[in-house]
Amino acid sequence: MYIRVFTQMAFIFVFLLVSGVSLAATPKHGLAMHGSPKYAANFTHFDYVNPTAPKGGKLRLAYRGTFDSLNPFILKGNAVGDISSLVYQTLTTKSYDEAFTEYALLAKTIEVAEDKSSVVFNIRPEAKWHNGVALTAHDVKFSFDILTNKGHPFYRSYYSHVKEVKVENDHRVKFLFNVKDNAELPLIIGQMPILPKHYWQEKEFDKTSLEYPLGSGAYRVKEIDVGRKIIFERVTDWWGKDLPVNKGRYNFDEIEIEYYRDETVLQQALFSGNYDVRSENIAKAWATEYNVPSVEQELVKKVEIKHKLTSGMQGFVFNTRRKIFADVNTRRALNYAFDFEWSNKQFAYGAYKRTNSYFVNSELASSGVPKGRELEILSEFKEQLPSELFTQEFVLPKTLGSGKDMRKYLKFAKDLLSEAGWVLGEDGILERNGEKFSFEVLLYSPAFKRWFNPIISNLRKLGIEANIRIVDVAQYQSRMETFDFDMAVGLFGQSLSPGNEQVNYWGSGKADINGSKNIMGVKSPVVDAIIEKIISAPTREELVYRVRALDRVLLWGYYLIPNWYIDYYRIAYWDKFGRPAKTPDYDLGLEDTWWYDDAKAKIVTDKIGK
Question: Domain 313-565's class?
Answer without folding.
Answer: alpha beta
